[in-house]
Amino acid sequence: MALGDFVHGGGPILVIIIILGLIGLFFFFERLFVLLRERNEMMATVIKVRNSIAQKNITAAKQHCRSSSTLFSSVMLRAFEYYDQQKIDLFDNGINDVVEEESLRLERNYRYINIVAILAPLLGFLGTVIGMMQIFGKIGTNVNVQNIPSYTAIFSSGISLALYTTVGGLAVAIPLLILMAILRELEDRILESTNEEVRSVVMKLKSLPLEEVQ
């Protein structure tokens, strides 16, 4: 079946479902780009910060973090605040909480993908109900029971709307749920890497007396 025939059979509701699916895909690719950029930029920043700390140049390490927009940078800037106050041990005990708090920005726009994944099958079900209402409504007003071709046309138009919208809703929702799982997995890996890298750098900071650094 041609796509045009499929869309025509589903009517306006199917068009809305398709538009919602495209919106969901847009936000998926936007988040995917952000997460991939986050991962790549984080590794570059980690190397710069490590090198600066190895040279006992905390000022340069702070500058590298300020010039980066990564989760690692945000967490490390808070670590440096504790280090300057000679309370780095307190920060070490709460790294997980800080990473979780700072990571909320990575989940921005997730809700839009979830909304589309929820709305699409509901709209599909709405199209199914409307299609069935059309069938029974037309049957109720058609008193010519012997007119089989007329009933065939009624069932054909109603069932096409009922089934096409259901298929369209599921065809949008299922892939988006899978794509959301991919985003969650990528985000979890970034959080895990950030946690490990921050702990590694904080361990080095703990071994550096404040009076010996630049």
Number of strands: 0
Strand content: under 5%
The average pLDDT value, as a whole number, equals 80
Shape: rod-shaped
Q: Give the topology string: H per helix, E per strand.
A: HHHHHHH
Q: Span between N and C termini? A: 70 Å
- Tally of structural domains: 1
C-alpha Rg, in Å? Answer: 28 Å
Write a structural description:
The chain is mainly alpha-helical and 214 residues long. It has one domain. The chain contains seven helices and no strands. Helix 3 crosses helix 5 (95-102) and helix 6 runs antiparallel to helix 7. The protein is rod-shaped and about 85 Å long. The N and C termini lie far apart (70 Å). The model has no long low-confidence stretch (mean pLDDT 80).
Which key phrases capture this entry?
214 residues; mainly alpha; 84% helix; 0% strand
